[in-house]
Amino acid sequence: xxxxxxxxxxxxxxxxxxxxxxxxxxxxxxxxxxxxxxxxxxxxxxxxxxxxxxxxxxxxxxxxxxxxxxxxxxxxxxxxxxxxxxxxxxxxxxxxxxxxxxxxxxxxxxxxxxxxxxxxxxxxxxxxxxxxxxxxxxxxxxxxxxxxxxxxxxxxxxxxxxxxxxxxxxxxxxxxxxxxxxxxxxxxxxxxxxxxxxxxxxxxxxxxx
Length: 209
Description:
Blueprint: E1 3-6, E2 12-14, E3 32-35, H1 37-55, H2 67-77, H3 80-84, H4 86-105, H5 108-139, H6 146-171, H7 181-207
Antiparallel strand pairs: 1-2, 1-3
Helix pairs in contact: 4-5, 4-7, 5-6, 6-7
């Protein structure tokens, strides 16, 4: 049985021919390369040897990188994007629940709590977006398959809706008491749904299942 590897997300497929498209990143069969089964185990052994050699101080000469490139490599190596996305993905649902509760029960303190949560998200977003773009460029070769397009669109919608909600509330703190309250809530529901879609796709890329 032949072994094929996706050149974009490194998904491994076993069969007589590569799949019509990668089940993880959706690239076509042409992006798959046939590899030797033993090379998979060999790569794992090499990684372990490299780690052991580094721990012992026996490092092999590496191509000189700039300080900025070293930082980028560390961000990707230590999964800065998947880790940082936990902030908006965790806070946004709580903020939306607070907005809805404030709307239903007419509690101003709940809307203020939602606003504070949203501000924390906006503070985190620049780093989340930066590490996401960096990982997409360096790890996935800036692939623009349907999967990545959906993820980019979902992330963009999340950012726009988040900023819109904050600005709207700051301009009109009584928005939840106005006729536009339902539209305001709808915007926030779309925002958290978009964040969920982006997070789901990100998890699929990381865990490859």
